[in-house]
């Protein structure tokens, strides 16, 4: 996600009163029956947003089948959730805000209710789910997403001619039921029906279109599992361009709701995407997904977001290559390797910002070392910038400027401290060892220590865990 220098209000911290509680799976033995099934926890255990995700389930795939009525702002649909029970469950939850009309589990009608906060869809199957077994949950719904909020966020972004589902840390519950936390990646297959003449763009590859008398259904599918907030669709009037660059298929789209000049400038920017991928691959290794692209919306979003395989952007003109660099870098840092918990967000934003610095030094701009020095010299010790604890900023500051800037400073300072060779070994090893999974700050610190052979305890304490400006010492990568 990029919020600089574009403006975006800070996301409000969650004020949930009930903390998620981990539940122990009942076990069967040869001598006796299963212990009593339990109710899966309402959250996965992230202290920043205790209701995010759910206990007792692991989702394999989402098949989302929605239709959207632009004039009424109404979303109707059905999502099939393939999941594995990780505990013996009497009931379990999915994160979903919309009104639900029917739920089935393995084809049988299931009981369901929405919790008082409206975020949890509690499902009670006809028969308990046994740990280790696979199940198909189908949820049917119809509602107006713009009427719903969660954790202080009203994330539905739409006009009478365009809609785009882009936001972080939450977006999925406004348009499909999910296990909404980065720890649970799943395959996402999307079909969206809209009036004839409108386009739909989503993640992955366009599998086909079915044109009816009045409406068209667009089918998109991503080949690699993704975090729920990275799934998106946009519908409206779009100009689409596509091709193949060095064997990688790309597809970009720009809203026709922009002025002619802005549409042309945005398309020029979007067309830079495949070359940005090729440039980043020189440092980071192979691009982690099978397709790439981007979309520019005409809606007043005010930020860009790293939706997997196809980031979304506001209209910023054709020269803002650094924005594309940031969001494409996220395909490695944030999408392929997702955070373990939201407190680890600097592993996404600091790393993507650092790759902007790296792009600058490779394309005639300031070097990473110069940018680090400029930050350090020009931000006073009393600035709020230094008061954020980067490794645990709190929910209200997960997208604070310090997460981006001080996060990137940490990486350049590490580069200064351990040397260029070991630094790039650390980054590439991080991507290789965490490939397709999740990463925590402590894991990155351990990796850096192992590869460099240095004691980096004080270094990381100064940059990531201290609410003050690091001393200008060689140990801190500053002298």
Automatic annotation (TrEMBL):
Q: Note whether Protease occurs among the keywords.
A: yes
Which SUPFAM superfamilies has this protein been placed in? Leukotriene A4 hydrolase N-terminal domain, Metalloproteases ('zincins'), catalytic domain
Q: Which cofactors does this protein require?
A: Zn(2+)
Q: What is the top EC class of this enzyme, as a single word?
A: hydrolase
Q: What keywords tag this UniProt record?
A: Hydrolase, Metal-binding, Metalloprotease, Protease, Signal, Zinc
One GO biological process this protein is involved in is: proteolysis
Q: One GO molecular-function annotation for this sequence?
A: zinc ion binding
> Which residue ranges does the record assign to the Peptidase M1 membrane alanine aminopeptidase domain?
319-463
The UniProt record lists the Aminopeptidase N-like N-terminal domain at 62-230
Residues spanning the membrane: none
Asked if the keyword Aminoacyl-tRNA synthetase belongs to this entry, the reply reads: no
UniProt EC number? 3.4.11.2
Residues in the signal sequence:
1-30
Catalytic activity, as annotated: Release of an N-terminal amino acid, Xaa-|-Yaa- from a peptide, amide or arylamide. Xaa is preferably Ala, but may be most amino acids including Pro (slow action). When a terminal hydrophobic residue is followed by a prolyl residue, the two may be released as an intact Xaa-Pro dipeptide
- InterPro entries associated with the record: Aminopeptidase_N-like_N (IPR045357), Aminopeptidase_N-like_N_sf (IPR042097), Peptidase_M1 (IPR001930), Peptidase_M1_aminopeptidases (IPR050344), Peptidase_M1_dom (IPR014782), Peptidase_M4/M1_CTD_sf (IPR027268)
Task: Fetch the CDD domains from UniProt.
Answer: M1_APN_like
Q: What's the family?
A: Belongs to the peptidase M1 family.
* Protein name stated in the entry: Aminopeptidase N
List the source organism: Nocardioides glacieisoli
